[in-house]
Amino acid sequence: MRLQQAIGRTSFWVFGGGLALMFLIPLIWTGVASVSPHGATAQQEGYGFANYRTLTEYDAGLPTYLWNSAYVSILTVIFTLVLSLLGGYAFARFRFPGRDVLFLLIIAILMVPYATLLVPLWVLMGEIGLRNSLFGLALVLTLYQLPFSMFMMRISFEAVPREIEESALVDGCGTFGVLRRVLVYAVWPGMITVGLFAFLHAWNDFIAPLFMINDSSRYPLSLAIATLRQQTMGAVDFGATQAGVVIMALPCLILFVLLQRHYVRGFMSGALKG
Amino acid sequence: MYAAPAALFVLLFFVLPLLLVGQMSASERPLLQGGQGINFPDNYAGIADDRLFWPAVGFTLKYTVIVVVVLLVLSMGMALLVQNRRRGVGFLRTAYFLPVSLGLASASLLFWGFYSPQIGPIDPFLQWLGITDEPVRWIGTPTMALISSIILVVWKFAGFFMLILLVGLQSIPNEVYEAARVDGASKVQSFFRITLPLLRPSIALCLIISVTGSLLAFDQFFILTNGGPDNSTTTVVMMIYREAFRRFDLGSAAALSVVVLLVLLVINIAQFRYLRRGADD
User: Signal peptide span per the entry (chain A) (predicted)?
Assistant: First the structure.
């Protein structure tokens, strides 16, 4: 029996550990490759940050691209939070005309494939002067965050006992006062989840900027690095690309490790209700 | 009142574009001129005539079937492996899940270097092992390009599906398994008779997400294979992009969008029905 257990534990470790290695190796490799010497990169000999220097000097420069990405992501997070905080409050606490239709419409965004709306959105943004603008891009990215975030904020508000706000209402607070002074603190975890998802999505998205942005100085990181690899004097730059991957991945990995609990919980409440 | 911003937003950036894409698909609308003539069936008829359209549909379907099967089987195995709390399980879960936090574009760029004959580590490793003599052309042939993309996508998403299945597995009460064991059921029997049926809602959810996601595949092919070699990995969504921004034909890009939208709507409704039924059982 003990032998059987030992075999079971060993095979668990060999199998599970081997699989874990296969998942970790590409991640580790890209970090190492970005600083190690290779013929097809700026880092010719020894270890160092020459690839990162190439990246810093590429076209509009890394700081610009980092800023573009950060700006779009933060705007997306703000738009998503404002819309879903107010909307979630409304859906959870008030009856108003068109309530069900609106909620259905928001859920219907899930049914419409991402890429199919980008062509008309491109035209529409052109009409209102927001094409090729990071502000417009953030609006597009917000659209696809709405179903999840509205759903999430609605259940967050519904989970707050009504007594809490009733006492505040009696004390002479308006409904907005209740939201601002009381409820925001109660639905805080939901807001972190919603913000995290919106940030990760906006930071990583590739197809929306590809459609919406044509001025290379306004590219977010994902687009800049995808175009950089082909453009460095006609030759591909593998090293700078991997340095770019590291820079794109780092914020996501850090955020994920810090907010893992929220990610999993938010994900579960979304997944189980389908 | 509090819903007004959301309502306005949805009207402006969801309902209006939906109407617009329908209207565009029926009109002549080259990208650079403002031509607006009615061109009703032509945009749609043009799609089927496109030399690349049917191969793209075929490729997208083939890719979807393989990815869905591989992802489901692998992530189910992973979920079963790490479902019980024991030493080291937390580490394994995190390791499997880490690639999920990367974007698909970053992952594609990563694997583009990983597979490259210039700096990629796999070819030297295989040669060191003596398995191959010369570099494998990871994205150089249609078959290898498909396999390489699938490896990338599975690496990126397996942890995500593992999480869905893990949540499902943990909602199955332990008593059910104990009762089965008392009745003399083997582990294999209880997996097929208890775990799989009770896990149906989670499996259905994985199915919906992976089918929809794969049918709309774009980033991985645009970045990793660029649709090649010989257009062998061009997907339907890549065709929308090509029509709009390479051929500057917004009308047919819109028509293609409408077709994709309707097809996916039908598929989604069918899948949601299935999921609903699974949840009611």
Answer: none
